[in-house]
Amino acid sequence: MATVELREATKRYRDGTVAVRRLSLEVRDGELMILVGPSGCGKTTALRMIAGLEEIDEGDLLIDGEVVTELTPKQRDIAMVFQSYALYPHMRVAENMGFALKLAGVAREEIDRRVLEAARVLDLEGLLHRKPGELSGGQRQRVAIGRAIVRDPRVFLMDEPLSNLDAKLRVQMRAEIAQLQRRLGTTTVYVTHDQTEAMTLGHRVAVMRDGVLQQLATPAELYEQHANLFVAGFLGSPGMNLLPGRVERGHLHLPIGDVPLPPGAGAAVGDGPVIAGIRPEHFEDAAVAGDRPGAVRIRTRLDLVESLGRERFAHFHAEGEGLDHDRLARLAGEAAGPRTIVARLDAASRLRGGEVAELTLSPGGIRLFDPETGERLAGGGGSGAGAAHAPDAGGGPMRLTA
Amino acid sequence: MTSVATRPDAPGGDVAAAPRRRRMTRARREERRTALAMLSPAVAVIVAVAFLPVLYTIYLSFHDATVTRTGGWVGFDNYSGALRDEVFRTALANTVIFTVVSVALELALGLAIAVGINRAFRGRGLVRTAVLVPWAFPVVVSALMWRLMLQDQVGIITYVVQELGITDSPILGDRWPLMIAAILVDVWKTTPFMALLLLAGLQTIPRDVLEAAEMDGATAWQRFRDVTLPLLRPAILVAVLFRTLEAWSVYDLFWVMTDRRLDSLSTYVYEGVRVSQLQFATGTAAAVLVFISSIVIALVFIKGFGAKTLQEDER
Amino acid sequence: MRARLATWGPALVIVLVAVLPVVWVLKMSLIPRRELFRSPPTVLPDDITLQHYRTVFDDPAFRQGLVNSLIIAGATTLLALVFGALAAYPLARLRFGGRTFIMTGILALAFFPSVAIIAPLFVEFRNLQLLNSYAAVIIVDTVFALPLAVWILTAFFRQLPRDLEDAARMDGATTLQTFRRVIVPIAAPGVFTAGILTFIFAWNEFLFANTFLFDESRWPVTVVIPNFATQYSIDYGGQAAAAIVVTVPLVLLVLVFQRRIVSGLTAGAVKG
Hints:
The complex is a heterotrimer of chains A (402), B (315) and C (272). With 402 residues, chain A is α+β, with helices and mostly antiparallel strands. Chain A has two domains: 4-224, P-loop containing nucleotide triphosphate hydrolases (Rossmann fold); 238-401, CATH 2.40.50.140. Chain A is built from twelve helices and 21 strands. In chain A, β12 (251-254) and β13 (257-260) form a beta hairpin. Chain B contains twelve helices and no strands. In chain B, α1 packs across α12 (280-304). By secondary structure, chain B is an all-alpha fold. Chain C has 272 residues and is mainly α. Chain C folds into two domains: 1-49, no CATH class; 60-271, MetI-like fold, CATH 1.10.3720. Helix content of chain C is 77%, strand content 0%. Chains in contact: A-B, A-C, B-C. Chains B and C meet through α1, α4, α5, α6 and α7 of B and α1, α4, α5, α6 and α7 of C.
């Protein structure tokens, strides 16, 4: 039973680089909070700051409302599962799991009892006398988790615990971790770079980039209402298509055609240049979709169509000028890049590469972003609820620059 | 805590401006304390057994000291005494010749062996084991073994040398044959060490650099001279520095090999302070000279040739 | 045939140069006195005898020398490993001021001319009544073995995965507990390597033993041997046998642990 709160926590390295910048984050009691972002975004550093393995240079960490910034890991009563598992190679499984209790001076019988109990939960009973070197990857992973739960700590920290497993095992363990966490009800902070893990496991998800929190929201909110271009580009696979556009009198002019904005939305945004984000699933083959109310039709030549069985991806490109790549890279990170537009089509679609096709586009799915700051612009559906720090997020007049 | 919302900073903008409040957390303090505690036994014995005695040697060298008492202040008398001593001057000359010749030979041979072993020829493992054998021997034993081979009645080398008509006199009699013999033993014994250090350096040179040079049309010799040698420079400097200082304080080889007929600086000191205790004071002055000259050699190598110090691998 | 000679040639030359003297002395130790003095000398022994080895082992000073060497080298190895590991861990991993300074100080010792300190140490040990005791030699040998031990151990500790130490800290271990219960067991191969090299160093040490021990019953073999050579000055077979006996443990160590020895000697040396 514990809450964890970071207040304006900053971590600087000796050379002056800032790994985590003024991170404020509150993890509720019993919550499974995900920290997600590309490598180097500071998520692992943030986790290690909570653990007490990295000092917090500025700001504070509170557990259950009590400042623990200067306490050692031992005093914080936190357990951690490492990406490499970090099992002690010279100790048997039982010793690995009981090490913390032994150090804490718990009686032998009590240690044995608790190790056995945890082993039962994790299906490790038959392996207690093995050494880590004699275990498979999945078994090691369980031992690492077992080592954490044996202690019954206030908080679990998990640093990419599934990244060393093969794809099949990863899906299975993901479900098990979710189940275990729900059963134990222990407050958990979980770091991953994998957005699927983030979206399926997290009660709430914190997206980070370059040491700065971008957005903190539930998975559903996050997918629908991105705070900025970076979050938009980071989530979803394939990622969101980003196109240069211009709003004029309630209409959005895009290189692929003109789209009317929902009433009110256009006014909220105001006239001027924007970046439009369109998810692949907001396109459809006009022949399959039929006449949807409000849908806009576009004609284009498809460069390539890939079939994935249940769905197809059509690649095409827009005529005219694209976005300034340097700026886009700065705003959207790895989601930027010289690439074609991707549309997800129904499996029933018969379109093929090289053909001129007619696609529909649902305007409700279009998200607009400020081309200067990358922040989400109001309009085009939903407000920026949950945006961590977006100035003026959730509406208001936008600065328009020519 | 304030609840004022902060605007996101421009990337990298506030690095310099932010207050640099470096916390010394409890964990950090504990770490520091433990570190110093763990280091203290080693540091204590090193200071007590090596560094303080050096200072004491320097102190003694300015006094009319004997083993039992410090005696009165005599300024630089002990130093001038040593420098005027014919035996000291011979020892100095011997040490210089021994150091220069043996280290030069060891470098040349060590380099050849290292390059040879690095070019994956057959029997590498065998070579590695074989070259470690002389390295692992006590100097005393190497000296004894070679003395047996150089002995004028039963020595195989003496027999061969005499059969070939190079010399008739016993090798272990005169200064120069003794010196040559001492150098040969040293070369035999320590070239392996040199070769191993150089080999470790060679193995860090990426193969593709050499292949690129080959594509550029460089001959094997040019590749060695223009690519391998410059890249190997740090390893060579460390190895040569190490060997030079070791040769400079040569003691047991001269002591055993030459039956005390050939003096080095170290045997001179030993004679003075340990054997004939009448020369205790002169001996300490000579000891200080050995110490200072070692520092000078090290500094010349480190500053002059730009050798990096060994511990420069801070993360 | 010629190609084979070219690939084996360099190896053969090096091996012969390195090993032939040892083999020749081995032969000298095994042939009877008569044959030893024969001219021209025999290449292969005509006769084999163990008489010289009997001479060596019948000499009480030599037998005692082997025991003394074992005591001195063993104790030195143990002490150097304990002190060295304790010092190497903070140097490899912990954060504190003055790390470079201390590391430089310890490594500088490797370049230290031993004779520079024998006079004051002799005086000090005399005052402490440690002259002629194992302790005097063990203490000094330990100090001069430390640079090598610290150097090798630091290199090994640096290679260990940091996660294990973090895991131990999360499990509530203090730095010392982490060191003792996690680092040392895992670094055992490195500790072992440092141990072999320290042992060889201490077994071979001559100057300090020759300086601080003057009672024959305390001498290690390195001091006994030159003395033995003087005492049995014309028993060349006996001298050869003595040389061989002393080197047998070393040759065995080299044969069994050559890989470790090489890795230890070159540990971190390439970074310079």
